[in-house]
Amino acid sequence: MAETDHRLLMLIDSDPAQTRLITALAGREGWRVMVVKDSKSALTSFSTKQGMQISAVILDQGVPGDNACDLISEIKTNRPALPLLMLTTSTSPLLAVEAMRAGATDYLVKPASPDRLMQALRSAATPDTRRDELTPLTEKMPAELDFDAMIGTAPPFRDALAKAAKAARGHGSILIEGESGTGKEMLSRAIHAASPRTKMPFKLINITGAPANSLESILFGHEKGAFPGAFQRQTGTFENYDGGTLVLDEVDRLTPDLQERLAEALTNNQIRPIGARHSFRVDVRIIAASNLPLEELVNAGHFRQDLYELLSHTKVILPPLRERSGDISALTRHFLHRIGEQPGLRPLSISDSALQLLAAFDWPGNVRQLQAVLFRAAVFCDGDVLTAQDFPQLSRMLGEQEESAHKPSQEGVGIMLYTEDGHLRPLEEIEADVIRLAIGHYRGRMTEVARRLGIGRSTLYRKLSDLGIDNAA
Question: Where does the Response regulatory domain start and stop, copy by copy (predicted)?
């Protein structure tokens, strides 16, 4: 703690409740917090002795309003290296672009979870970590809701999508496992959109983002007077979303008591609010998401066996991006197309050298991190093509890689041409990769795939059979 006690956070915020929350969260991380309530006081504070010690700034856009970007620019003019995070209720990609161009290090849409807020603050204040300028920026772009939006041809990924698509047509619980950033939330939304409940409500609850002492009430509700402070009856999520889909993200973080409560509710399809004498029936489909393998937690005694079985009628495992690096090229082009449609941005292409740089990184934050990196690069790109120079953080983390300049190029638009010993790969393997890439790029539209490859559909399907490529890939 001694290493961080000197860190001072300036919080520009006029909301007392939010100020208390951020001050408490930052305090746990070893920050001292200086609160200012208006733009003028903030700018004046920088010239004081205490102001010279400021290590980071959190700005609520509600304080300066439409002048938020001007305030960011003025702060960055005086303190160019100072990390600055902006909180806002706006989901406008244009505002995100303007804020970042003005100098914001990150942009968080309220209500931001405590974990997300602290992750952004840690990342901004520790520029040497692998997360520097690789923080999740995906909330700036509207979520896509169907399976076609999930790009990739790697067999484990296609198998996961096929299993999820089949399960979507039923009503049973689904467990989605995978590292953070692999696309669990997106897959959950695609499952709901493809399910018989598509017209019914959808709700995602992040277990770690909800206050631990009120999570039971959030899920099950409570009666008036059930506990100190329960001044009125509150309906829980199960009741509010009856007939719909409820996603429990990071379900592995449930406390033992809540695991027991949830197991009981799922066994009987009934819920009982805190303080209520009677239970009542609900019909809610559960999609559980976990960053950790739940079966291993069960075996270690950290997760209930009965709850695991209730949640995993179908289990889908999303592979990390490092295990499907062949998808990076198609994902990159897909994201750049979507980013180019956002207000304030324009379509960009990407050079082979930049693709090679992206393929060389191991992406600990997975697909979400790739999208965030591309978003940031697009914001600051002055030309029409992203090059390796537009990814300075990746270049620094990977090193100069001078040796690679003397080796044969390993990629041609996402296809590996050479083996590790420098020899060309067999033509059959390259052809199989080209077909997989085309299927992913054109989202499984086989007529378009055949047309773009210059072959007939019957020839395409014969090649799929000869090369052992799954038709669903």
Answer: 8-125
